[in-house]
Structure formats: structure tokens, C-alpha cells
Specification:
With 465 residues, the protein is α/β, with parallel strands linked by helices. The strands form six sheets. Strands 1, 2, 3, 4, 5, 6 and 19 form a seven-stranded mixed β-sheet that branches. A five-stranded parallel β-sheet has the order 8-15-9-10-11. A five-stranded antiparallel β-sheet has the order 20-21-24-23-22, with helices on both faces. Helix 3 packs antiparallel against helix 4 and helix 3 runs parallel beside helix 6. The longest helix is centred in the N-terminal third of the chain and has 25 residues. It starts with a strand and ends in a 6-residue tail after the last helix. Bound molecules: flavin-adenine dinucleotide and nicotinamide-adenine-dinucleotide (NAD). The site of flavin-adenine dinucleotide has 36 residues, from helix 1, strand 2, helix 2, helix 3 and strand 4.
């Protein structure tokens, strides 16, 4: 049995864990990280990056198909486009491979010891790792739990055979002719739209009476319109019952009690993710829980001294950038810096078609918090750059306090709007007022001009609408 000691041990090399370890290494903290799969976690291997690669490929393919069908106002013609999904997946795997190798390289560069295997706590200061060459015991002054999350399985639709999770969908080598998707949240809509563009006949079953329940209907309406245009059937308020006895169809019951048989070659279940709180020896510790998540304070400390937790295992929103910022903060705390969670907002981006961004408070949230607000909304149909991109659907909306014009929230929906999320977040983080946004020169012609115009609109004098 081998034994090592270090000041900081990180369990899990997803965005939360690997960023924590890199930053700690940079700060000279003697750090080790344990990962049982590949560096990069869900995000780089089976989540954010591969899904965005497939979404991009599907977009390009759908554009070419539209050109071939003569539905292209720019006069571009194409002939009978086809897609070799196995090749697309190989291209996607190349990207994830480069990124995961890159993470391993960054960890090494920062002087972090990488241990490959499953980690299990023995006590609050000791972890045993099952490695390929036997057990490795690691003793550490501080331990960070960054074990992430896993897809939720439905009892009547266990994963296997034609029932796949996002991981299975992101490794298909043939486009399923008929795809049933359970859950119209982030993954269901991002991947459902992508497969519809790749040529699948997609049916989405959602238990609630709306898609993307996290966002207001003004923001999701353009996505609903696009789903309809792509021929995606969305069954709202519908319960899934299981698979038909011959395995051919997904069985569901609509809100009005109508039984539906949805013939499907693949069934993608995307009904949420659950924190990984088992399998690493939690039973050896006394950690307080916050519902199904590990309870942490504003410094990501758990209820046990010297044990921290970051990322999806600590709660919503389960987003990679939240995990990374928590990881960086914990590394700095362990190195002796005074840090605590001081962020005004965590941006949320949904990579649907069109994309949705939300930072800070929506109008409804601001009103519910008792704020008197001003709202400015500017449509992309009045933005020159959006016209040149054939992307006129959507808008930018700014929510500000009525009295001092402090910006409380910024939302938008539109093609490529994910890239504006940085400007939106910066405005909120820096405490911008409407006048600050309106007074910033936004380059012409860009979609970002819609942001300045939304602020001007809230001030009562938009120029281009
Ligand atoms: P994870 O990335 O889940 O990493 C945890 C790591 O811990 C894993 O590598 C696991 O192998 C390891 N581990 C667990 N237990 C042990 C153990 N006992 N010993 C050793 N290692 C262990 N978020 C976004 O912000 N933007 C997106 O566009 C986005 N798209 C997504 C698309 C999909 C399809 C999915 C599934 C998720 C997406 N997410 C997205 C969410 C994002 O992937 C997660 O929020 C993020 O990966 C969480 O990081 P983490 O470090 O907490 O955990
Ligand atoms: P989600 O929470 O976004 O959506 C799940 C959906 O499934 C909800 O609309 C819910 O009402 C529905 N649902 C739940 N049970 C159901 C049932 N029995 N039948 C029908 N519908 C049901 O979950 P997800 O799409 O699995 O994504 C998981 C998480 O991963 C997200 O919450 C997010 O944190 C992260 N993620 C983020 C991004 C991004 O940032 N762009 C992309 C993908 C995933």
C-alpha cells in the first residue's frame, strides 16, 4: 500500500475540481487530484463541449438542407447534402480529446499530482484510491469534494437498449429516424433541436405545461416557434408511462387523459441531474445535507472542518462556470487568501435555437422582490447586423431599478446571443446603471447594439425603434 500526504486533495477533475487544483498549484499549495474517469469531468467529456459540437454540426447541416430545398434568400444553392454522423462524432471526440489532454497538461504544469482511480474517504483526513496498480492512500489537511452529478433515471424507463441519457445521445453514430425526448429542459431542447436538424422526427414529452420552465415565456416563445418550424411535436403536461410491450413505442398520457403511443428508435431521457453523493464514502463522514446536495457556506465549507465541496454536488444552478468559480475560490482560501462568494449573478445560457441568455433578475423576479422597475426591450428585427445574419428573431431586455437605474437583470433571446452573456454579466457585476450601458460605444454593425438600444429604450429614448 502506497501513501502520500499533501496540503490539498481534490476529488473529481471536472470544472470545479480541476480549476481548484490548477489554482492551488499556481499558489504553491501542495495539491493532488483524484479522477476515476477522464480529466474535464462531465463538462468536457460528455456535457457542455460535446453537446455544443453536435449542436454546431446540426446547425450547419440544417442550413445546407435548407439551401438544397431552395429555402435560402441569399441565393445559395446546394445539392442533396448528407451527414455521416460517425464522422461528426469522431470530430467531436477530437475536440474533447484535445481539451482533456490540455487539462491534464495544465494540472501537471501547476505541479498538481494526478491520481487515477476511484476515491473513497476513510475519515475526514484520509482517502483511499483504488488505482490500477493497487490502493493508494492519501492524507490531506484539506479535501475538496467535486464529484459532480449524474443523469436522473426514470424507474419506468431505465437507461439501456433504446433508452439513452445525454451521454448515449452524444455518441450515436447514426441519426435515429424517430427520437422521443422526455423532458423539455436544457438538455432535452438543446439535443432535441439538434437531432431534428440532423433529420430525426422528434417528439418531446414534458410533464409541466411549458418548455424550459426556468425562463419566462417571452424568452422561450421564439424557441417554441423554431421547434414548430422544424416539425418537432411538443407534448406539454404529459406523463410518460413506459415502453410498449413490443418495445416499439414510448407510452404517455396527456393532460387531458389521452393515451399516446410515440413510435421511437431512441428515447432520450433528460429529466434532470442528481448530485453524486454516494460511492465516495460519505458514510464515513458527518456532512450536513441541503436536500439532496451537500450543504456548503459562502466559502464552500461543508459542516466538517477542512472539507470543502464545489460544483454540481453543492446545488443549483448545476453549471460549469459556477463550479469553476467555486473551485478557484476554495483554492485561494486554502492558500490563505480571504475570499468568499461575492458574485452578483450567475449567467445562464441555453444553447437552443435561438439561444437564450439570462443574467440577474427577470421582470417577474424583480417585481416579486418588491422593486419598482423600468424595462427596456429591443428587437433584433431592428438591428442591422441581425438582418445580415438572417437572424432577426428575438430581443435584448434590460431590467433596472426605476429610482436610480441600477441594472438588476439582462435577458435576451437570439441567434449567437450566448456571446453577449459576457457583456451582460460584466454590467451586472460592475453595478452598471442604464446610463453606463447607453453611454458605452457599441461597435456597428453588431448584435450588441441591441443591448445599448435596450438600455436607451428603458431611459425612454431608443434611437432605432
Ligand atoms: P463534473 O463535471 O460532473 O465532474 C465530476 C468528476 O468527478 C467526474 O469526472 C467524475 O468521474 C469524478 N468523480 C466522481 N466521483 C469520484 C470518485 N469517487 N473518485 C474519483 N473521481 C470521482 N453547463 C454549462 O455551464 N454550460 C453548458 O452548456 C452545459 N451543457 C451541458 C450539457 C450536457 C449534456 C450535460 C450533461 C451537462 C451540461 N452542463 C453545462 C453542466 C456541466 O457539465 C456541469 O455543471 C459541470 O460539469 C459540473 O462540474 P463539476 O466539477 O461539479 O462535476
Ligand atoms: P432540466 O432540469 O433542465 O430539465 C428537466 C425537464 O424535465 C424539466 O422541464 C422537467 O419539468 C422535466 N421532467 C422532469 N420529470 C419528468 C417526467 N417524468 N416526464 C416528463 N418531463 C419531466 O434537466 P436536464 O435537461 O436533464 O439538464 C440537467 C442540468 O444540466 C440542467 O439543469 C443544467 O444545470 C445542466 N445543463 C446546462 C446546460 C447549459 O447551461 N446550456 C445545458 C445542458 C445541461
Amino acid at each position: 500500500m502506497k501513501e502520500i500526504t499533501c496540503k490539498l486533495l481534490v476529488i473529481g477533475a471536472g470544472p470545479g475540481g480541476y480549476v481548484c487544483a490548477i489554482r492551488a498549484g499556481q499558489l504553491g499549495v501542495d495539491t493532488a487530484i483524484v479522477e476515476m474517469a477522464k480529466p474535464g469531468g462531465t463538462c468536457l467529456n460528455i456535457g457542455c463541449i460535446p453537446s455544443k459540437a453536435i449542436i454546431h454540426a446540426a446547425d450547419d447541416f440544417a442550413k445546407t438542407v435548407a439551401m438544397a430545398a431552395g429555402k435560402n434568400a441569399m441565393g445559395i444553392k446546394a445539392d442533396n447534402p448528407t451527414i455521416d454522423l460517425a464522422k461528426t462524432m469522431a470530430w467531436k471526440d477530437g475536440i474533447t480529446g484535445r481539451l482533456t489532454l490540455g487539462v491534464a497538461g495544465l494540472l501537471k504544469k501547476a505541479g498538481v499530482k494526478i491520481v487515477v482511480g476511484r476515491a473513497k474517504f476513510r475519515d475526514g483526513k484520509t482517502v483511499a484510491v483504488e488505482t490500477e496498480t493497487g490502493e493508494q492512500v492519501i492524507r490531506a489537511e484539506n479535501i475538496v469534494i467535486a464529484t459532480g452529478s449524474a443523469p436522473v433515471e426514470l424507474p419506468m424507463l431505465p437507461f439501456g437498449g433504446k433508452v439513452v441519457s445525454s451521454t448515449g445521445a452524444l455518441s450515436l453514430t447514426e441519426v435515429p429516424q424517430r427520437l422521443a425526448v422526455v423532458g423539455a429542459g436544457y438538455i432535452g431542447l438543446e439535443l432535441g433541436l439538434a437531432f431534428a436538424k440532423l433529420g430525426s422526427k422528434v417528439t418531446i414529452v414534458e410533464a409541466l405545461d411549458r418548455i424550459l420552465p426556468l425562463y419566462d415565456t417571452q424568452l422561450t416563445q421564439p424557441v417554441a416557434k423554431r421547434l414548430a418550424a422544424l416539425g418537432v411535436e411538443v407534448l406539454l403536461g404529459t406523463k410518460v408511462k413506459g415502453i410498449s410491450s413490443n418495445g416499439e413505442a414510448l407510452l404517455a398520457e396527456t393532460g387531458s387523459g389521452e393515451e399516446r403511443r410515440i413510435a421511437a428508435d431512441k428515447i432520450l431521457v433528460t429529466v434532470g441531474r442528481k448530485p453524486v453523493t454516494e460511492g465516495w464514502g460519505r458514510e464515513e463522514l458527518e456532512l450536513d445535507m441541503d436536500g439532496r446536495f451537500l450543504k456548503v457556506d459562502e466559502q464552500c465549507r461543508t459542516s466538517m472542518r477542512g472539507i470543502y465541496a464545489v460544483g454540481d454536488v453543492t446545488g443549483e444552478p448545476m453549471l460549469a462556470h459556477r463550479a469553476m468559480v467555486q473551485g478557484e475560490m476554495v483554492a485561494e482560501i486554502v492558500s490563505g487568501k480571504r475570499r468568499s462568494w461575492d458574485k452578483r449573478a450567475i449567467p445562464a445560457v441555453c444553447f437552443t435555437d435561438p439561444e437564450i441568455v439570462s443574467v440577474g433578475m427577470s421582470p417577474d423576479e424583480a417585481k416579486a422582490a418588491g422593486r419598482e422597475i423600468k424595462i427596456g426591450q429591443f428587437p433584433f428585427s431592428a438591428n442591422g447586423r441581425a438582418m445580415t445574419l438572417s437572424a432577426e428573431e428575438g430581443f435584448v431586455r434590460v431590467v433596472a431599478r426605476a429610482d436610480n437605474h441600477l441594472v438588476l437583470g439582462i435577458q435576451g433571446v437570439g441567434a449567437g446571443i450566448s456571446e453577449l452573456s459576457a457583456a451582460f454579466s460584466l454590467a451586472i457585476e460592475m453595478g452598471a446603471r442604464l446610463e453606463d450601458i447607453a453611454g458605452t460605444i457599441h461597435a456597428h454593425p453588431t448584435q450588441s447594439e441591441a443591448f445599448a438600444e435596450a438600455a436607451l429604450k428603458a431611459l425612454g429614448h431608443a434611437l432605432h425603434v
